[in-house]
Specification:
The protein is an all-alpha fold. It folds into 2 domains: 153 residues, no CATH class; 277 residues, no CATH class. The chain is built from 20 helices and no strands. It is globular. The two termini are 15 Å apart.
């Protein structure tokens, strides 16, 4: 079940939230756990066993780490156990159906046990509460990666209020609009261009396709994160923001401070810093960065394009750290922005093309090697989708929130949200293309 499906919007969400609000305080966590298990089991019932095992395993590991003197041994067992589960189901290819969201909830449970070991959070002795934290449906299948410390106090004391419910619903609707109005349209155009690349090659067409995919993955993933954060707020939880207008960045370093923030933070705090970070000299720092970005690529999947994608950004970040940032700071901000977007778009092409041959052909076309600059098809695609491109460019920046939402009252914001909701549902009813890219991660 996905948030942008009619069954979720028209049945699951209204029923679950209505019952949750009227449910006694002591039973809210149990009900939310039950609803989350139903949500998760909807598509692949058998995969729920993997998540339940992960919940029980890490619940026990957390208690042992908090009580035993040789807690480090337990911590090592916990990390090996979690990574083994993730590796077996995600990378061996033994199972045809990958447990949805396994990368996200595995990182959440690992961070919980590590934080208990470090003493930064108290162990959760109530297995219902712990299971609810791991399986909570808003952030279960695609994040953001919510660390236990972020919501530990809210598990027993939720911030339920009319204001939070209204703001959360508004956040959810904006996320839904990002997904349905922009991501779905951009994704369909990317697929059309990508599949026609061998017969209708041109530089303009290849760049248009890459730009459509660049917008698709942003509006798809940030839209989902907004929906998750909004529903969390409606349920009384404050989830961390996962995106901060990454396409406004003027460097790749800044981009990765703004994109998928919860994952970047996780790798920084649980891999980069424990390895020594930048404290042990430049060579060690380079090795640590390489490990982090190799793991970041592998986190998305075992395909070579993800590994290349991780190494690609490692090289760019290393170059910026060594000398490139100093050069960038001396040129106009607009040129810094163009530089960033150029390499970000190339990066998403690497991410999207799952085999070397397709990647080689597509990059070669973008570079104008044995391909015309334009053709009739590329001009047609640009002309018919120019307004969509302009709208996506605008709504991927702070401009709408800064100059519209912040300057209007509650009534106008509510009207704007209602229009987005109606338009999104209309598109879902009439359309058939409604994928979710991060489902497979």
């Amino acid at each position: 079940m996905v948030f942008s499906s009619l069954i979720f919007l028209c049945i699951f969400m209204p029923v679950v939230f209505t019952v949750y609000y009227i449910c006694p305080v002591k039973l809210k966590n149990l009900f939310l756990l039950s609803a989350s298990l139903v949500f998760y089991a909807w598509g692949e019932p058998a995969c729920i066993l993997v998540m339940l095992f992960s919940i029980v395993f890490n619940y026990i590991m957390g208690i042992l780490v908090s009580k035993l003197k040789k807690a480090k041994i337990v911590l090592v067992v916990s990390i090996i156990g979690n990574l083994s589960i993730l590796f077996f189901f995600k990378y061996t290819g033994f199972f045809t159906a990958l447990p949805i969201g396994i990368s996200f909830y595995t990182f959440q449970t690992m961070s919980y046990v590590i934080d208990v070991y470090w003493g930064s959070v108290k162990v959760q002795k109530n297995i219902i509460n712990f299971a609810m934290y791991v399986s909570m449906f808003p952030q279960l299948i695609a994040g953001p990666i919510v660390r236990y410390g972020n919501i530990a106090e809210q598990i027993n004391k939720k911030e339920l209020s009319d204001k939070n419910i209204a703001l959360g619903l508004q956040k959810f609707i904006i996320g839904l609009g990002k997904k349905v109005i922009f991501a779905n349209q951009a994704g369909a155009l990317w697929n059309e261009i990508y599949n026609s690349a061998s017969t209708s090659q041109s530089v303009l067409l290849a760049w248009l396709g890459a730009i459509f995919y660049t917008f698709q993955i942003y509006f798809d993933f940030s839209g989902y994160s907004d929906m998750a954060i909004g529903m969390g707020q409606m349920l009384g939880f404050n989830f961390p923001e996962n995106f901060n207008y990454p396409y406004q960045s003027v460097s790749i370093t800044e981009f990765w401070r703004r994109w998928h923030i919860s994952l970047s933070t996780w790798f920084k705090e649980y891999v980069y810093i424990p390895l020594g970070g930048s404290r042990k000299g430049l060579l060690r720092q380079i090795i640590n960065l390489f490990i982090v970005w190799l793991l970041t690529g592998l986190w998305h999947g075992a395909a070579w394009n993800f590994i290349i994608w991780g190494i690609y950004f490692f090289i760019l970040l290393l170059l910026e750290k060594c000398f490139l940032l100093k050069i960038l700071q001396k040129i106009p901000r607009l040129l810094q922005h163009i530089y960033s977007l150029f390499f970000i778009v190339i990066g998403w092409v690497i991410f999207a093309c799952e085999d070397f041959n397709s990647l080689y052909i597509y990059i070669k076309t973008m570079a104008g090697i044995q391909a015309p600059l334009v053709n009739n098809y590329s001009i047609y695609m640009l002309y018919t989708n120019l307004i969509l491109l302009l709208l996506m460019a605008i709504f991927s920046t702070k401009f709408p929130s800064r100059f519209f939402l912040k300057r209007t009252g509650f009534v106008l914001e509510s009207v704007f949200s209602f229009i987005i909701l109606i338009l999104s549902i209309s598109l879902l009813v009439s359309g058939t293309y409604n994928p979710f890219l991060y489902f497979k991660f």
